[in-house]
Amino acid sequence: MISTEDFWDKTWSRKYERYNHHHQTIWDYLNARDIFKGNVLDLGCGPCVMYKNKDIQLTGVDWSEEGLRQAKINYPRGVYICGDATKTSLPSDSFDTILACGLLDLFDNWKPVIIEAQRLLKLGGKFYATLLQGYSGHDWTQYPHVTGNWHLIEFTKEDDNTRDQDSGRSE
């Protein structure tokens, strides 16, 4: 059986630019909300194609060495850390904005990711996660639509999002 890290290393080693349209649309949607100010953290950043030719203070966390290698090519100004999105070991209260594009889809239980994001957010900061409708049986239609099959969930450090999160998986 292939390890999770090996799966993502193999995935990110392929040419990923075919996804640029959705990433650009997601960027435009979020940028219209003026969220890319201050320190930005992307949990599960992968190859960072969304940030290509942009100008932000970005820290990216991913468990794939290949994803981070691609990220350094696509957005060389970022700071990248190979690690677990649920236990980053980054300092608390450090980020104005945290993104997780497609990351929550991979978790049956969001709690560890959300708890870590809330720990890392500065007071008044916001967490934004894109969710892929239908991925692995998920139903995200209760969340705002962004583009294609993508939806968005957002919360602040102060929100009570540590309660049980519905994984959105259809039974």
Describe the structure.
With about 170 residues, this protein is an alpha/beta fold. It is about 25% helix and about 25% strand. The chain has a 7-stranded mixed β-sheet with strand order 3-2-1-4-5-7-6. Helix 1 runs parallel beside helix 3. The two termini are about 25 Å apart. Mean pLDDT is about 85; it is low at about 165-170.
Strand content: 25-35%
Q: How would you sum up the major sheet? A: 7 strands, mixed
Based on DSSP secondary structure assignment, what is the total number of beta strands? 7
Q: So what's the overall shape?
A: globular
Give the helix level as a range of percent. 25-40%
Q: Strand order, main sheet: write it out.
A: 3-2-1-4-5-7-6
Structural class estimated from helices and strands? alpha/beta
Rg is: 15 Å
Mean pLDDT: 83
Which regions are unreliable across 5 or more consecutive residues at pLDDT < 50?
167-171
Distance between the terminal alpha carbons, to the nearest Å?
A: 26 Å
N-to-C series of helices and strands: HHEEHEEHEEE
Q: What is the tally of helical segments?
A: 4
